[in-house]
Design brief:
By secondary structure, the chain is an alpha+beta fold. Helices cover 25% and strands 36% of the residues. It is built from ten helices and 20 strands. α3 packs across α4, α3 packs parallel to α5 and α4 crosses α5. It is globular, with a radius of gyration of 24 Å.
Length: 357
Amino acid sequence: MNELVRVENLVWQVQGRNIVDVERFSIDAGENVAIIGENGSGKSSFVKLIALLQQPSSGNIYYRGNLCGMKSLDIRREISTVFQEPLLLKGTVYDNVALGLKIRKVPKPLIREKVDRWLETFNISHLKKQNVRGLSGGESQRVSLARAMVTEPRLLILDEPFSSLDAPARAGIVQDFCEVLRKSSLATIFITHNVTEIPLMSDRVCVFDGGKIIEEGPPARILNYPGREVTAGLVGIENIFRGKIVEKGKEALYVECEGTGRLRTGNHYDFPRGTGVKILIRPDMVEVGHSREYNSYKYRIKKIYPLHGHYKLYGGIPFDLIVLVGKDAFVKNELATGKEIDIFIPEEGIHLIKDCH
């Protein structure tokens, strides 16, 4: 693939503090990169630098091999940005979507053709003549996406554009946008807190912490087998325990979890016996109503929290464990606060990282 953007030693300081400190980052034409991180980790500041909306304190940004900056207007016109708030101007939907083309002095017949095509793509053709002040949140964000895409950018930056939408509106707009990505060679940088969107919209994930990229890789690895504890929390692995490797067999590895008993997982770690580790247990991988000869416990439910078609269980086994179950499992096992159930933690639901403390 062809490299579209590359940054080297990119630093942005505010009052003597490094908000962004990225040694190297690149994105190829047609590649989709998701960025995750806690609030204040530097994600939004980083993409503002990439979008040439903010001047870095030091470092270089290359676009298609050419050094660029905020004054590189020809390059800025090849980059579109969609923020969490739609930031629409007064007027009709048509006027907002056509704005970038009018600034570029595109002929009126071609403006109409392009605007109509993108209004149809995002299913808002019927809103063409409507004033933007009367739009719903989902409709407003569809207008923002159409406005960003109508100029045919090479790079699209999305800074949590769907976070303020309700679940049905969000699902619909994500589905339509994924279809756009599938049909185009557009490169995207996508900031999100919703990890369920990452496999749909990205080829690679970068994890930010303290203004730095601390980890990156394919979505499957980052989501299922993170290499850092902070990443585990970001992707929804809430069960994190200290432990120690106590036995290594040919096919299995055994860890003692905070003195409460042994857990068995696969022996694919290069950790010697006695190594201190962090044990990550995915809540969605824990099986309820089942028991085996290993990794099985009696689990008493202390609290139940409904969560987008699933149920989050809080309980003890004897150590506290969060379990995420679907509606079918919840109903089948007649789960309720105070009930004691059998649970099984499969080996593939357990991931180990070295404990550096």
